């Protein structure tokens, strides 16, 4: 680690531990959030797919596409993972968007310029978002809309210093090989604060992360990539906090990083992954109609249409398909101390749309509704049965409201019980938080659910 | 770096510097190579694609496929990279093969178990290959052939200690998203030495790497992933060698590793990469006949058929398509010292079949024949004009003879002239050898041509 990187980690940690911002008091933050929710006059109406302006099923493959040939499309995919195989619809958006947080020091404390952003699929009006959250079509003006504020800080040649810059995956079960650019840039310039934007400390952002549906997925994934240093030792800290400190601080874990990479390579080979594009109309087990695209047994998700009217977006009114999951997912990391160092139990998981094969996912990641009639996945019951202090984080968070409709998942961080075996079963792996943070310098190692939980972990100090 | 990793680096370096093996003298090595070339009774005859046993153009997409549905296929691809776009045929082999080298200490010196292997596309009979070089179909016996010797050392649960285990890309211009597992395993067991295999020091292997077409591509890529330590300081060393030592030793370079990763992310976004499978018959600019698949202007490559008869392979006789490049490629790294540390000028390069977008490629990577009528790419003339001591490596090496027919490329490592600007143009980047080796712990950062040159760099000590 260079000195600069170590210094960045300490400054991020100081900001995360900050009591209150000198710029935006907690009271001011609350009233701003309430006020923006009211100001965002918007309206979402679900509709038949055939009624979406500009969208149609193209004749050759039956894909649901936009007449511009841009944005995204709904396509058919035939997937094999190891010995399993299935067909499904999938969102193909071969664009790399920007998820960028601008940071700046005020009174010696780093602040993040966060946005109150409305997305059509949100269960609530607005959620806290990165400074810039824009697809390539957005920020290059394909929509013909207003320019994306602050995007100049994230496109080369940019003023400021880059703290994080990496392409990270998004939901592999719903997106085909999707990646977005997670980027954090520090500026020393004067930056105007538009009405939808506020400078907040990381402490303020992390406190909101313990509230349901307040910080959006895009902000959570960027937070997860930030190279926090270990918080200072405190006299009052319990064993969990001491173990977390050592884990963030790169104390040696059960496996060397070389072993972690080797075990993931092993799983990428074992979970042999083959993707084949097929016509949407030939996707076995799914019905594709003018109304919606839906699974025969009502599992997994459906694709519906939405008409959106919004005042504070680049474009004021538009139509688009949205993916509506059938039920909430549970994503949970079990934690355990080994030699006084906190470890997370990660699972190598290959999803339909994965770009590079298996990524490290939470211990549990499943939608219980989709699994009716099937045995519970490992550790689900242990996670749901945990009570009291063992539950370090338990919150419902939303997935990307620009593509998903009312996608709310429950996220948990739970200390494993005394009798949870130290030996990880095949495909599972105990890693330290420091190792997870090192892997997050690269893309396609931790999936987006695992990254939401890494961000959440920083609320458990 | 853990102590184990540092120790591995030193042991690899000691083996690379070893004068002669206590097991296999240089004379014995030479006579073994001559003897194996004679013993390998094999014969390759080119043929029309329509005459290949078991291969046919399937009616739906026009892909050239095998009747088993396994092995590989030739498909059509429509590609966009930034503002450019083109169609081309591409090899799709959605399998991860094993390129594995078994190592063992004899008299305190690490030895590699290397294979004398015949491949149908080789210009010569045999080349030095990894202990195991096998596709998934090979080593799981889909061919119905003989078992792959030594494969048990590379499949879990394996005896021995893993030194390297990573999925690396292969030719992105010819393969669709191809990766092979590059793996090095150390054993302390007694290992029988079959007649096609010999224990060699890395010094012996590297000396063969200065000979044309002696060490195959698969061996070169595994060698490039080995975590060598810096060789010891010697009194006689010149400035180049001293700078190389510091570079391998992770002396700070012009850019931090965070900056290197950020610059590559930037290029991955700028070189926006979209791949779309299209029917082989619709590939613009290419002719697809019963005889061959060929470019209208005779550029790039053609796909031809081959009948193969070989005594020492899992299967003794078979037919397959091979890709024959039209002309040799030149791949070269320019090097330059900054503050006494050797740097390589890498270029971020997106190829048709790239899995994750741009990878770091050599300074120059081009096929002059394909570029007739076009301006020379940057640095080509400087590389070809260099003479004397500035040329640190200059050798013709073969690409994978299992898929490519007579694919011989010229590889060079050349010290930049005094007047080569220190500032890298857009898309180029000065990196240290230590940084390249750190990146090689991960896949899809250095392309296969760059990796061949990293292996070659270890011959320039």
TrEMBL record, chains A, B:
One Gene Ontology term of the molecular function aspect: lyase activity
Entry-linked InterPro entries: EvaA-like, EvaA-like_sf
Domain of life: Bacteria
Keyword rRNA processing: no
One family name in Pfam for this protein: Hexose_dehydrat
dTDP-4-dehydro-6-deoxy-alpha-D-glucopyranose 2,3-dehydratase domain sequence ranges: 28-226, 258-457
The protein's Enzyme Commission number: 4.2.1.159
The protein's name in its UniProt record: NDP-hexose 2,3-dehydratase
Source organism of this protein record: Streptomyces griseochromogenes
């Amino acid at each position: 680690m260079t000195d600069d990187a170590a210094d960045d980690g300490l400054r991020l940690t100081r900001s995360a531990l900050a009591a209150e911002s000198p710029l935006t008091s907690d009271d001011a933050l609350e009233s701003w959030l309430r006020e923006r929710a009211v100001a965002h006059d918007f309206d979402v109406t679900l509709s038949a797919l055939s009624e979406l302006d500009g969208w149609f099923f193209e004749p050759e493959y039956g894909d649901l596409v936009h007449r511009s040939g841009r944005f995204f499309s709904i396509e058919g995919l035939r997937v094999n993972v190891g010995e399993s195989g299935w067909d499904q619809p999938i969102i193909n958006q071969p664009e790399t968007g920007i998820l960028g947080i601008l940071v700046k020091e005020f009174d010696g404390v780093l602040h993040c310029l966060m946005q109150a952003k409305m997305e059509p699929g949100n269960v609530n009006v607005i959620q806290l978002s990165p400074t810039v959250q824009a697809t390539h079509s957005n920020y290059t003006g394909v929509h013909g809309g207003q320019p994306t504020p602050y995007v100049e800080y994230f496109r080369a040649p940019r003023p400021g210093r880059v703290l994080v810059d990496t392409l990270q995956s998004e939901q592999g079960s719903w997106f085909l090989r999707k990646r977005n650019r997670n980027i954090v840039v520090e500026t020393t310039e004067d930056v105007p604060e538009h009405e939808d934007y506020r400078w907040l400390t990381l402490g303020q952002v992390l406190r909101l992360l313990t509230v349901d549906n307040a910080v959006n997925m895009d902000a959570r994934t960027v937070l997860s990539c930030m190279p926090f240093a270990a918080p200072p030792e405190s006299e009052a800290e319990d064993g969990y906090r001491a173990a977390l400190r050592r884990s963030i601080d790169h104390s040696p874990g059960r496996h060397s990083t070389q072993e972690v990479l080797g075990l993931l390579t092993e799983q990428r080979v074992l979970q042999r992954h083959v993707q084949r594009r097929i016509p949407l109309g030939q996707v076995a087990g799914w019905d594709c109609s003018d109304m919606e695209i839906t699974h025969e047994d009502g599992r997994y998700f459906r694709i519906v249409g939405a008409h959106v009217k919004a005042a504070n977006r680049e474009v004021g009114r538009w139509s688009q398909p949205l993916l509506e999951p059938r039920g909430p997912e549970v994503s949970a990391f079990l934690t355990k101390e080994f030699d006084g160092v906190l470890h997370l139990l990660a699972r190598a998981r290959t999803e339909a749309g994965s770009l590079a094969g298996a990524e490290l996912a939470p211990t549990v990641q499943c939608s219980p509704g989709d699994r009716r009639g099937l045995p519970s996945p490992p550790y689900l019951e242990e996670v749901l049965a945990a009570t009291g202090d063992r539950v370090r984080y338990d919150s419902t968070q939303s997935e990307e409201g620009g593509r998903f409709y009312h996608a709310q998942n429950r996220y948990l961080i739970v200390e494993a019980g005394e009798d949870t075996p130290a030996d990880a079963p095949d495909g599972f792996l105990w890693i330290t938080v420091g190792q997870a943070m090192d892997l997050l310098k690269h893309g396609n190692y931790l999936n987006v659910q695992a990254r939401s939980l890494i961000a959440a972990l920083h609320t458990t100090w």
